Amino acid sequence: MAVAAIGKYEFEPADALEKFHGAQLLYIGWEDHLLFCAPFAFPFPPTMPFRAVVEEVLPGSFGYHPDFARIDWAQAEWFKSGQPWRPDFDKSLAENGLRHKDVIRFRTPGLRGIAGSCS
Amino acid sequence: MDMQVAKKKLGLKEKYQVMTRGLDWEPSYQKKEDIYPYASYEGIKIHDWDKWEDPFRLTMDAYWKYQAEKERKLYAIIDAYAQNNGHLNVTDARYINTVKLFLTGVSPLEYMAHRGFAHAGRAFPGAGPRVACLMQSLDEIRHAQTQIHALSNFNKHYNGLHDFRHMHDRVWYLSVPKSFFDDAVTAGPFEFMVAIGFSFEYVLTNLLFVPFVSGAAYNGDMGTMTFGFSAQSDEARHMTLGLEVIKFILEQDPDNLPIVQRWIDKWTWRGYRVLTLVAMMMDYMLPKRTMSWKEAWEVYFEENGGALFKDLARYGITMPRCAETIALEKDHLSHQAWGTFYNYGAAAAFHTWVPEKEEMDWLAAKYPQSFDKYYRPRLEFWREQAAKGNRFYNKTLPMLCQTCQIPMLFTEPGDPTKICYREVDYQGSKYHFCSDHCKEIFEHEPEKYVQSWLPVHQIYQGSCFPEGTDPSAEGFDPLAAVLQYYHLEFGRDNLDFEGSEDQKNFDLWRGQATKNG
């Protein structure tokens, strides 16, 4: 459908890739850990290795949770737009097929949050 | 010699006719469609504007006299409240945070409502709705003013209220009420009337004003309570106008029904999402609670709203489908919302805290299906950590919904352990949503919502730093720069209530008022 308007109604999207100074947005959520109220939004260069996201960025964002230190990344299950997905840690975000405003989540089997409450 | 002419006095009915409909005229040298260019493009068909039943039954002179009298009384009470240090009679300084939320989030909407009704009134070719919109427009600017005056008293003593208008246009969570109203005023006049006049003023207003006003009364805030009561007689008229709008549009042409139904569906959901702030206010921010959010929803929407939609069934209007989703959220909404503000307590212009034990017991009693199972463990963990000096402050920015602009904090309908993710590909780009309803709203008018000013994305684009900031400078602290841009003072306006200046001052001043030095 189109907006009902009195004339031509076309505007630039507010969040086009070129507005982020060379970065692209990536959203990351941790399943079963809603102590973090919502998934995170990050601006990353597309050339950034996936491993750097996991090893250098995620500890600062999720490290407060006592489960974080217990994560076995080899066991982690990944999803992109809700579908099972397998990242290559040694490839860049772009090489992993991640585009501007993609959303990924990870599930860490055996870890179910504070007292198993998914918090 | 003067002629003695019997002085003619108009009867009430005549006076009413002369001073409302009688003010209209038929244009002779301009075309009607040039004078009213917004009257038809939304697809609403009106055949006879005279069928409009004036709900206000007020003329301008009577309006003026009546409102002036009301305001004289209101200001007398507000002055007395200020002079007697009424702020020290509130239950607990935590309460004042509800006032901060109201002033920054709601009062600017009153002003926008003033603008919106003035615009809609100008756009309608009928004299009846034009006069009704004029009066509501004046009501709204009076409400904005009386709220700002009443609440300014708190600004003399407490933090976070000093620049509410500046904050309203910038602070991340205030983009939720702001974008809601901007969405309405940028729609056509008919959609605005259904959005604000009907869906907000009629269907949802009791869930906004009653909780704030009765919350004020329960917590000893007579100033806020008084402006609430003063506004109430106006609200009754607004509700009548909202209902009249719907009936008038639907009676004019059968083609109007699907358009109106879609607007009701959209704006009930948009309004409900804004009420997320009210839900957490009721359950977490009032030291002395009135009723739970869930109870309020059941009384004011499910019962009262249910009866309303039964009445409207004869026009073909049905209950908005989102009501089913809302019913599934009512056990969770306030807990998820407060958890979000607790997360981002360093970036809010009011204080947050973990509820005390008795308060958690109250929540458990009000929410037997959800609180102990999902939310108590989280809150108790936060409390333990705070006691160890490790208070949780989330420093990574959240993903937001493209439509309602709220962080993606809502869970799947029926599964409170899974965040609800929805997405759409539009013109080669991805857009994300908190719910099916926000997604559908986007899909209907994507050209509108691709323009959303999402605070998180704007921060990453570099639009939310004070002028002249160099983000490439060594040691640049983006969070500090964003708070400066908000005019939010770190360590005074934000962070936990425990240890705040508000807490210390309130205790000190109340001690001076009730004890010997």
TrEMBL record, chain A:
This protein's record includes keyword Oxidoreductase: yes
Gene3D superfamilies the UniProt entry points to: Phenol hydroxylase (3.10.20.560)
Entry GO MF terms: phenol 2-monooxygenase activity
Keyword field: Monooxygenase, Oxidoreductase
Pfam families: Phenol_monoox
Protein name in UniProt: Phenol 2-monooxygenase P4 subunit
Automatic annotation (TrEMBL), chain B:
Keywords: Monooxygenase, Oxidoreductase
SUPFAM superfamilies the record matches: Ferritin-like
Domain of life: Bacteria
Stretches assigned to the YHS domain: 411-453
InterPro entries to which the protein is assigned, alphabetical: Ferritin-like_SF, Phenol_Hydrox, RNR-like, YHS_dom
Keyword Membrane included in the entry's annotation: no
GO function term, MF aspect, one: monooxygenase activity
Protein name, as recorded: Phenol 2-monooxygenase P3 subunit
Organism of origin: Azoarcus indigens
